[in-house]
Specification:
There is one protein chain. By secondary structure, the protein is α/β, with parallel strands linked by helices. The chain contains six helices and six strands; from the N terminus they run ββαααββαβαβα. The chain has a six-stranded mixed beta sheet with strand order 1-2-3-4-5-6, sandwiched between helices. Helix 5 links the parallel strand 5 and strand 6. The radius of gyration is 16 Å and the shape is globular. It starts with a strand and ends in a 14-residue tail after the last helix.
Length: 166
């Protein structure tokens, strides 16, 4: 997969996209991203794709923050994957930054084709490029297939996560 580091860049001759391209999301990608977020048993309960205003406002906040990297995978002009990589500066680990992967989705009709792996490879490379010493993610406890995927990529289940809805 061709990739773009944090700013969008052209990838080959115009119209020559036989492999997915990972690029920064734009406001026009928001409906496709929200559609992918809503396309599973958990997202269907918490996403409202028919109410775009909140998502567009959130996109503007993300786009304005240099520590946020909202990415989409595009194949033949269609948005087929998304993820958000967040850089978190910290004091622990001798002042190290860490990167957090969130909201990873691959469109249902292109799953199992290697796109998710390529998206995670980009995350590893980008986190290193940005000087992060840890790359982490959280995953809902019910996503057993996703957990096996993360472990195949070299992630280990090292912590127990907690959350509080506000």
């Amino acid at each position: 997969m061709s990739t773009a580091s944090p700013s969008p860049q052209a990838d080959g001759p115009a119209g020559a996209q036989d492999a997915p391209v990972l690029r920064r999301a734009t406001a026009s990608d928001v409906p496709a991203i929200v559609g992918m977020l809503a396309d599973d048993h958990l997202g269907a309960l918490r996403e409202t794709p028919d109410e775009p205003a909140a998502y567009l406002a959130a996109f503007e906040r993300i786009a304005a923050d240099p520590n946020q990297h909202l990415m989409v995978a595009e194949l033949d002009g269609r948005t087929v994957g998304t993820l958000q990589l967040t850089v978190i500066p910290g004091l622990s680990r001798q002042g190290a930054s860490r990167a957090l992967i969130e909201a990873v989705r691959v469109h249902a009709d292109v799953r199992a084709g290697g796109l998710g792996t390529r998206m995670f490879e980009w995350c590893v490379e980008e986190a290193r490029r940005l000087g992060c010493s840890v790359l982490q993610l959280t995953s809902d406890a019910t996503r057993i297939d996703a957990h096996r995927f993360y472990e195949r990529l070299g992630f280990e289940a090292s912590h127990l996560g907690f959350k509080m809805l506000l």
